Amino acid sequence: QIRYSIPEELTRGAFVGNIAKDLGTDVAKLAAANLQVLSDSDSQYFSVNVNTGVIMVSERIDREQLCGQNPRCFLHLKLAIENPVEFYRIEVEILDINDNPPEFPSDEVSLRIYELASLGARFPIQPAQDPDVGTNTLQTYHLSANDNFNLNVKARTDGGKFPELVLERALDREFRAFHYLVLTAEDGGSPPQSSKIRITIQVLDANDNHPVFDRPSYGARLVENSPLGTLVVKLNATDVDEGPNGDIRYSLSSHNSAALRQIFAIDEQTGEIRVQGNLDFEEATVYEIEVEAKDMGSPTMEEHCSVVVEITDVNDNAPEVILTSFSSTLSEDALPGTVVAVIHVRDRDSGEQGKVLCHVSPDLPFQLRKDYEHQYSLLTSTRLDREHVAYYNVTVSASDLGHPPLSRHTILPITLIDVNDNAPQFEQASYEVLVAENNPVGSVLVTVSAADPDSEQNSRLSYSILRAGGTDPGLDPTRYLSIHPTNGQVAAKFPFDYEQTTYLQFHVEVSDGGSPALRNRTLVHVFVVDQNDNAPRVHFPRAGEDSATQFRISPSIVPPALITKVVAIDADSGRNAWLSYHLVEATDPGLFSVALRSGEVRITRALQETDASAHELLVVVRDAGEPPLSTAVTLVVLVEEKGPEALQGSEARAADGGGLPTITLYLIVSLVLISTV
């Protein structure tokens, strides 16, 4: 805590103190730490130059307006710096200067005094008021020279001074009917200031006894907030005169302030003082009531007394919670101990009833730290997770120590700001896709989907295709596939051909929009399903589209001799490659047969002389696909007389074909291997 003293009414920009020097801190550090000066009052009377560390006056300071008649006047400031957050309490005492002279309510006052007034009788004069304090306030009165009156200054417990004229020498109306005096009020300033009031005294002839109270002063004690009409005290005054001169009326003296007159009232007949306004201990702890009793004589005679009323405090003020600093948003990665708010609490009650304790719910990840009297800091107590809880309503409860205690609850809404602390997660670790070959271009093969529990930009996902490890380097997935960057739809750029590609695997990577971005991958397996899109192809015998292959046999061939074998291959697989051979047309259907699975063409009976010398056979090779595809081949069998070596089955064909057995063997092995696969 740092304390300064300055006089009131300084000009704007006047020097108050060097905070950098008093804290022992470098000025550059204060500027970098975002130095701020916070005032407890509504007005900003001071400002700080962050470049020099000097606190200056920024508004006119009138001590009398701020603190009234309080002997000491303070303005409290808070000095706040950041990185780390620190607070210093600054107390500036405002010193009084003699800028106000004492002033009487009026320039002239008239008194009517009976000539038989007793020596020593006192006649109060409306006092002068000086808003200054200490030595600068009203100090003394001076009465002009005269033969009959002396001046007595009555001092009250609150420091007020009230002048009274004291009759020192008996009056004689016949000798002098009017007295003219001058009363001067002077303060203790340097130089002193003063004011004057003219007093005109008219000496009357009549009522020579004034009322007398049974005691010079009265005391009472009330609790604050006493009900209206509560009896404070009953006064009693007597006057030994008879008739109207002894008939007494009570009233509140003109010395009492207008505010006091609104709180208390007196019955002029009975002298009972009762409460007619609100009693608030926080506004005043003691009231001093000046009461006068007047008789009904002519002239009227009066007597004065004081009633001191002490107010007892009750717990009627709930604590107040004031947010000195508060941020309603907080990053979810804030470390435990991060300051969220600085809270100032106060209670206008006194004693134990004015002491305040604060707390927050232990179920929340926040705690209160007491910095010093009446100030707390709200801190984070544990790690925060926006994906678990994104919003907090932190209730700060402030309770006093009264009986019963009063409390006030303030809700602080805190929203967590997302940080990119969660990587996207795919719904599946891997995907398996079956796609029929010859698929349309642009058709969606699969939709991969990932989720990110972060929010806004941190949860905006983008998909891309990567080559999977172990994949054939020649099979670049980006050549065949594309992926929509936002919805994860994987589409084909080209139709798949099972006969070229049966399987493809690749990685799909998803990344979020955070900084830095977080990523994850999933593996996609694409299996191409074969379609019956290839017709069987005849490898043997080879012939043109419009020609037939000729074979020669001897008329004496013995059934079931092998004439030839039709060999065909289907590029498809599975059922689509299962081939069957059919004799569709023949010159003599009963003379030849074709094996269903092997394609062997054999003679079924012995040739007769009546049989034709040339036979044309149409053999169709058909696969088992849906729908089936087929290929036809035309064979011409010629019956000719040749040498025995050329007409004996496969040997004759070998001689005619030039290396035919080797080709036939190759085709048979290929057919077996394909069928096995």
TrEMBL record:
- Gene3D superfamilies, sorted: Cadherins
GO MF terms held by the record: calcium ion binding
Q: Which GO terms describe its biological process?
A: homophilic cell adhesion via plasma membrane adhesion molecules
Keyword annotations from UniProtKB, A to Z: Calcium, Cell adhesion, Cell membrane, Glycoprotein, Membrane, Repeat, Signal, Transmembrane, Transmembrane helix
* InterPro entries in the record: Cadherin-like_dom, Cadherin-like_sf, Cadherin_CS, Cadherin_N, Protocadherin/Cadherin-CA
- Domain Cadherin as annotated: residue spans: 5-104, 105-213, 214-321, 322-426, 427-538, 545-663
Question: Which Gene Ontology cellular component annotation is one that this UniProt entry carries?
Answer: plasma membrane
Q: Which residues cross the membrane?
A: none
Topology with regard to the membrane?
Answer: Single-pass type I membrane protein
Q: Which interval of the chain is the signal sequence?
A: none
Per UniProt, subcellular location reads as: Cell membrane
Please give the PANTHER family that the UniProt record associates with this protein: CADHERIN-87A, PROTOCADHERIN GAMMA SUBFAMILY C, 4
Q: What is this protein called?
A: Protocadherin gamma-C3
Origin species, per record, is Oriolus oriolus (Eurasian golden oriole)
Protein's gene? Pcdhgc5
